[in-house]
Amino acid sequence: MTKHIALLGHHLSHSISPRFQQAALDHLGLDIRYEAWDTEPDRLEETVNKLRRPQNLGANVTVPYKETVLALLDRLAGMAPQIGAVNTIINQGAKLVGHNTDATGFMMALRAEADFDPRDKCAVLLGAGGAARAVAFALVEAGIASLIIFNRTFERGRGLALALGANLKVGQQVRALPWEEGKLGEVLPACELLVNCTTLGLKGGPGEGQTPLRAEGLHKDMLVYDLVYNPPETPLLKEARRAGALAVSGLSMLVYQGAASFELWLEQPAPIDIMFKEARRVLGGGQCCAF
Hints:
Blueprint: E1 3-9, H1 17-27, E2 32-38, H2 44-50, E3 56-61, E4 75-76, H3 80-83, E5 88-92, E6 95-99, H4 102-114, E7 122-126, H5 130-141, E8 146-151, H6 154-164, E9 173-178, H7 181-187, E10 193-196, E11 223-226, H8 235-242, E12 246-248, H9 251-266, H10 272-282
Parallel strand pairs: 1-2, 1-3, 4-6, 7-8, 7-10, 8-9, 10-11, 11-12
Antiparallel strand pairs: 3-5, 5-6
Helix pairs in contact: 1-10, 4-5, 4-9, 9-10
């Protein structure tokens, strides 16, 4: 019987996960189909419950359901309870277990693409959704000295900062600030890592063609990491390069988190080289992102 793995989200046309995951499954000769299940919010519970069927191994979860889906699962594992967001579901005998591989994927990407160690650094995070939560917890765990969170809805950003509070070690600071040009201007000069976790710039999204920041607010001594992968060269990355900053798109995070999910479903090593090759091919040879 053919097995299935789903991608749960809404407005999935931007996602290349089905392409590189299927390439990995085919490379290993597995009779498994990875499918995009574009799901309206009022059908989320029904769709999640379909994962309990024996032919379904589990799912990836993307925007906008990484937090919403928690209430529909039987239990959480790994870092998922801490982070408060899930990007991977495993069907274990009709019981649904939620994991978060975004945090691991992000840290692997930072080191592989930029040789960047967050320890004792100052970081600015744009956004406070499911992907942002994983990034924030990963940075705190890695020893970031200062993390400042900006979100369009200030209360949500402050909620993330408060959730991180229990994980802080001596000397670490996390705070949320209103997303205002003046506030950003105050903190960006000392910023060594800027991570965009919003969908601004995403092809096909409401913010297509937009950038959260211009080159004038950036500087050459920072790493700018954009989780958006489609288009390969986002407006933010263009602005970062104009400013002389090191600019990295989210291809590595996307593939590394996907490989970690693959290994949870199948309990065997993922063919990461095949995943990277297909992801780059789909995007025309460029780099890609992690929603």
